[in-house]
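hiii so my PI (J.) wants the whole complex modelled not just the main chain, which honestly fair. so below is everything: two entries, each one labled with what it is. i double checked the lines twice but i was tired so who knows lol
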Amino acid sequence: MLVRTRIAPSPTGFPHIGTIYQVLFDFAYAHKYNGKFILRIEDTDRARFVEGAEEIIFRSLDWFGLTPDEGPVQGGDFGPYRQSERLDIYKKYAHQLLDKGHAYYCFCSRERLEEMRKEQERKKQSPMYDRTCRTLTEGEIKAKLADNIPHVLRMKVPDDRKIVVHDVIMGDIEFESNTVDDQVVLKSDGFPTYHLGVVVDDHLMEISHVFRGREWVSSTPKHVLLYEFFGWEMPVHAHLPLILNSDGKGKLSKRHGHASVDYYREGGYLPEAVLNYLSNIVWNHPEGKEIYSLTEFMQLFDITQITSQGARFDLQKLNWMNQQYIQKMSDEELLTKIKDFYKDRQLDDILVRKLLPLLKTRMETLADFEKLTGYFFAAPSVAPRSQKEKEIIVDLQSILSDVTDWTEQGIFVALKAVLEKHSCRMPVLYYLFTGEEHGLPLPQSLEILGKETTLMRLKQL
RNA sequence: GGCGCCAUCGUCUAGUGGCCUAGGACAUCUGGUUUUCAGCCAGAGAAUCAGGGGUUCGAAUCCCCUUGGCGUCACCA
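here's the output for the full assembly
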């Protein structure tokens, strides 16, 4: 069987990191078995549609190197890959359901539905459609249709049945059909709901494995039923554990800035580090390694071995991982990444190259470059904070101007003399030169800055 | 509330009946690297394996109950 996985985001806002987390598994699994990874845009909610969101999804996937094999951009034999362009298909299948007696017209207004739910809640019942329209006679239906009363199609959930959801990481989960709602499958605007959309498209696009978040398990019985109604074989399902907010309260949400993919790109994170982190929170390398490549993950992971607990998002650990990746990078690679990250800044290659060895162990993200190297590009705004510091500046000027050997070692000796004379500590000098109390090693920094610039800046204090 | 899932250091986890007086990583703290900060090295503290019952010669591991957390209950996905 050919492995085909898919991600089916809806263009309703910025891409969520949870989407990338899911794609990681889609992508890895598909490519592990020489299959295909498909992108399908589920734009069936016109009210929540956001212009441009689709392009951001494409871009985000590309940034992570998780480009789909088939999709709206790449094309493929199973298109169109946008649900809004497949309306006829859903209509056809919805009516097939109707003909087979697995669906029925519902003419209930939103207001009535709303009231019904309120009433149910008042009676402490779980809100569910009361099946009023299930008993409509053929004549009544025809009359309402003729009157152009807005309507939807609902699936007819059978009574008193066990519905079993097979999940490769959770095992079999049993549901009682009486707790399953007569879900709307086709909306009054002719668009399908998610439930009809996924089932039809996953089948038509020959999806073999469905990886999605745990939040979907409770609607899976509906999908099981739909597959059964159509007489189709159901793809293998794996519901991935949720990524939780760092306080453990709830799914990683928009309130936490780092739910957005942009947060990582703009924050100077490396896509491979983010992917590494994402996989590591629910999967362990057999040798206990924490740092491993996507390729290695792809080769070694087994979907059945995924943890079954939701995991809190730990930014500190991600930061550590990102730093590990930066540290292990070659100078050339790092230079490229930095220049790319600051592409609007016209950075001087020669200067940056000199800085790299100092930077490497001090950058958690590419964005740290700016904080760490500011004083190389412009004089920091510093003013002596005491009489003592004024005296130190005077001594610094005279001692430094006498340094003939302007190297790390020569500068170090000179600085040490000042330190000893005033019996002060390094952070004081550091502040005078950079405006910060700590950062890159001072002697090396001054060597790179150059004698002339160093003395000139000192004079301006 | 109904239904479903989950439960090992602060966090992510290893662990599938004896190798566990519970291992690793992040974080924290201490010392070293003969004066910043990182990095690196060494070390420390940190989990009565949610609680209670079983099963067993033996349980973090199997079963039951309780508790707690999370998810979900739309013409949203």
